[in-house]
Every structure is written in C-alpha cells, then in structure tokens.
Amino acid sequence: MASLNKVMLIGNIGSDPEMRFTPTGSPVTSFAMAVSRNFTTREGERRQETEWFTVVTWNRLAETCNQFLTKGRRAYVEGRLKTRSWEGQDGQKRFRNEIIANRVVFLDRQVSSTPADGASTPSADETAIPQDDMDAEDLPF
To answer: Which of 2, 5, 29, 57 could be a cystine partner for 61, CB 3.0 to 4.6 Å?
Structure first.
C-alpha cells in the first residue's frame, strides 16, 4: 500500500537559523517558520491566524540555510512531518512536531545586495538542494 508524508509551506522565517553538528560531523540547521492564513468570519470580520513550525535541514541544505536565511526572510519549504519525543528534566514526556526539509527556496532577495563575507545570495535553483534521509543515530539532540 502506498503512503505519503509531504508538507509544503510558504512563510516567513521567525528566528535566525541555528546550526549544530552530529557526533559524526553532519551539519543540521533548524529555524522557526511562521505561516499565516487570512480569512473572513461569518460576521464579515477579516482575521489572520498564524501557525508556527520548526524546520530542520541536513547536510549541504543545512549549510546553505544557515548562511543565507535570516529572521524575516520569506521562503518555501518542502519536506516531511516528523514527531520527536524525549523525556524532560522533570521526568515528563515531551513531543515536538518538526518539518524535516528536503527543499528550501528563498522567495525574496537578501536585504543587502552583497553579504559581508562577499558571498552572493543563491538563486532558487541553488537553494532547492535534495536532502538525504538521516538515521536517528545522527540526531544531535
């Protein structure tokens, strides 16, 4: 039987990316993403509802996102939904839903025309880097 786990988001980056490394040296970058939905209530009032997602990227895509994404930028993220669980310091079981991204496309131009390190902002083709699946043993947390 076929199955599908695919998530597609367009929104604004809500926090500067944070990059870390697994014990085997694989880079992993995570960041918050806000996705808003505008709608009209039955009473005719316009409203906006915002959902927050944690996005996780690996390897080359992690390096690219860490280098070029900043809070406030607009992006398209494609990936799969993953629920991670752990036991907190208080002994309570905790859960977090994350988007494991295999594609990130930057939808706006970087604020400055030339970044401080002299690198150029990648084009949409450069940011659509396919992602390899990682094993649970590679998780840095």
So the answer is: 57
CA distance 37 to 135: 34
pTM over 0.90, yes/no: no
Mean confidence (pLDDT) of the chain: 83
Domains in the chain (CATH in brackets) are: 8-39+46-133 (2.40.50.140)
Cα–Cα distances in angstroms (integers) from residue 17 to residues 46, 49, 93, in the given order: 32, 23, 26
pLDDT tens string 115-125: 443 334 454 44
47/112 Cα distance (integer angstroms)? 33
Q: If we measure between CA atoms, which residue out of 35, 79, 85, 87 comes closest to residue 56?
A: 79
Bridge partners for 124 per DSSP: none
Residue whose tokens read 């902002």: 121
**Lowest-confidence range among 33-42, 50-59, 85-94?**
85-94
Cβ pair 57, 27 in contact under 8 A: no
Q: Are strands 46-58 and 93-106 parallel, antiparallel or unpaired?
A: parallel
